[in-house]
């Protein structure tokens, strides 16, 4: 099977993670553009270069497409771009012609512009450093009250006008994609809701798109992986097993649906079916939170797992979502101590619950459906996830030691668990500690 994959940007979880997952099945011919063509924190993608890459791809079975990458140059540029609606429309009309020339199933997604609840402008326009929280409050209250909030009087008119014009431009572009789907061009189209709250313009836009027949999904970075899973293999029967079953109606940080709905939604979007444990091809263990989801880097604690977990005698995977962006150390210890065997189909504790679930299910499905399974590739993937999600995010990121020293104990234990001898190197491709790149 030949798959073309256009990521959101060049972060490890967006670029190298899908490559690692695709390698699990040697029968997947995975086409991805050169990394230099994709955008980063401060630079948008080389859109001309990506058009050339897409146009030159020979016959393939499926195209996984981040529409923001072509339209704006990436997910972050979609919030920062000053181009007009007409300029963006002309660009995506060119994209439409390219896609029409491909005899392939097209799995696409586009973001609904997020509204972050802070004054951090690292991924937003410059004015967010002063007005971001006020814009969030204006959006939240206007939606909740059903009329314009008086907070509008606090925000400078030129800033609010610019922000609302950017939102309207992106929303109108999303409506064009919806027409493409109705015309039959797109096999699957997802509108992603990133960093959601209960109310806000992004929530209103999602509701409007749904009324027009669109499908919206909480999450963002994991959606291309969920679509990759959807494009590969036959449906796999997956049984969710919550380790705190009485708490599965609680809502994760940065999401707007219960963890139970997040789990079932990710399974179904991946082209799999939800079933009971006795009928399952793979068990999905969810180490879910009991009061609220913790977040180690934000010093937000929560009750760690205090039960006893033992691996089953059938295929299983593990979504460790007790904390956002990092493992639950108490639970990870049990996973490692239980040892690796042929029934292990993956572990993940990456960022949001949706991020964790989407990437985990994708890898497990591709392993289960693999026509030519590569165990070395699977072990490399799992080494990366355990070192990143457990070793780095939950531990070394908080340490004052240099990363190579802080990570050494985890390297030894992960190698012992997997029966490998990896000697990892570590980089920070976006020059920040939020994401680390682990090179095996």
Q: What order do the helices and strands come in, and which of them pair?
A:
Blueprint: E1 2-6, H1 12-22, E2 29-31, H2 47-56, E3 62-66, H3 67-71, H4 77-80, H5 85-100, E4 105-112, H6 128-145, H7 157-182, E5 188-193, H8 201-211, E6 216-218, H9 223-231, E7 237-242, H10 259-269, E8 273-274, E9 282-287, E10 316-320, H11 329-338, E11 344-348, H12 353-369, H13 375-392, H14 403-406, H15 408-418, E12 425-427, E13 437-439
Parallel strand pairs: 1-2, 1-3, 3-4, 4-5, 5-6, 7-8, 7-9, 9-10, 10-11
Antiparallel strand pairs: 12-13
Brief descriptors of the model:
Rossmann fold; five-stranded parallel sheet; 13 strands; 2 domains; 15 helices; 14% strand
* Total of DSSP H or I helical runs spanning 4+ residues: 15
Q: State the order of secondary-structure elements, H for helix, E for strand.
A: EHEHEHHHEHHEHEHEHEEEHEHHHHEE
Average pLDDT for all residues: 96
Return residue spans where pLDDT drops below 50 for at least 5 consecutive residues.
Answer: none
Largest pleated sheet: 6 strands, parallel
Structure summary, number of beta strands: 13
Tally of discrete structural domains: 2
Strand content: 5-15%
Structure description:
The structure is a single chain. The protein is α/β, with parallel strands linked by helices and 440 residues long. It has 2 domains: 2-227, no CATH class; 235-395, Rossmann fold. The chain is 41% helix and 14% strand. It is built from 15 helices and 13 strands. It has helices at residues 12-22, 47-56, 67-71, 77-80, 85-100, 128-145, 157-182, 201-211, 223-231, 259-269, 329-338, 353-369, 375-392, 403-406, 408-418; strands at 2-6, 29-31, 62-66, 105-112, 188-193, 216-218, 237-242, 273-274, 282-287, 316-320, 344-348, 425-427, 437-439. A 6-stranded parallel beta sheet has the order 2-1-3-4-5-6, sandwiched between helices. Helix 10 (259-269) links the parallel strand 7 and strand 8. Helix 5 runs parallel beside helix 7, helix 10 runs parallel beside helix 12 and helix 13 (375-392) runs antiparallel to helix 15 (408-418). The longest helix has 26 residues, at 157-182. It starts with a strand and ends with a strand. The model has no long low-confidence stretch (mean pLDDT 96).
